[in-house]
Specification:
This protein is mainly α. It has helices at about 20-50, 65-205, 210-330.
Length: about 325
Amino acid sequence: ALSDGDLHTEMVSVRSGDELEVLAKTLKDTVESVNQYISDIQQVLTQVANGNLGIEPQVDYKGDFTLIRGSLSSIIQSMNATIAGFRAAAGRLADMADELSGQSGQLHEASLEQNQSAEALVSEVTHVKERLASVTESSGQTRSKTEEIAGCIETANTKMAALSGAMDDISSHAQEITKIAGAIEDIAFQTNILALNAAVEAARAGEAGQGFSVVSDEVRNLASKSAEAASNTSTLIGRSLNDVRTGTESTNLAISAMQLINECIQSIKTLMDEISDASVQQSEMIVSVENRIKEVSKVIEENSDAAEESAAISNELSGQAKTLNQLISQFRIK
């Protein structure tokens, strides 16, 4: 039975008083010791299998069996250290998973907020681009109106220049008329003197000179009227010259004002051209900024998706860490 592995067969006592009795007793003691060792090892291994790593061998092993006790103790100690390390690592892993999950959630929320901000910024940039397009269009219309005004001012300058020339011609002709009126006055004065001399001579001639005296009186009257008409003409011409002079000064002032207005219009035209060019450049820059913001928004969206995926993975990792903790918690260590 012993050779077949049966250590529970009852040993028959032998009382022969010789070597057979000693051999039987020794064999019985050996079988009892082996049974104790096997029972103790079975108990220790059963407790270890049930997760109790705080068990210790309860039998006092002797001889070479002490090696088995030392091996059991070493195995239990090593498993205690390993499970303790697993438990600590699982705890840290769970904490890290929870923290990573929280950070991933915050990152996802921040990415969503950034995406909303980027979309709002794109909307604002689009609005600014539309306003710039309106400004550019208005600048073009203003430039066209300014060119029309500049053309009208040039036409007015031409007409004012022609008017100034006409005023100069009128003044020149008026001066010539004044000279002619002066000559008429001189002629009338001389005619009057001649008529006076003729009247004196007619008086000396007596009755024969009466007819000539009448003629000389008429000549004198005509000379007086001519002189008066010439004087009135000179007066009127003088007034006209004053009016023409005043009109010329006003015309010159108007021409100067037109020139200043034209210069201002040209300056406005130049400024409008610069505004139009600047609006075009700003519009191009706004388009570039809009494209950049769209690229950033795309990257933010990708980050948001990655953060969401990371949060899902973190949650799964946290679940796995909790499962690992539950599994490890089944072991009772020293």
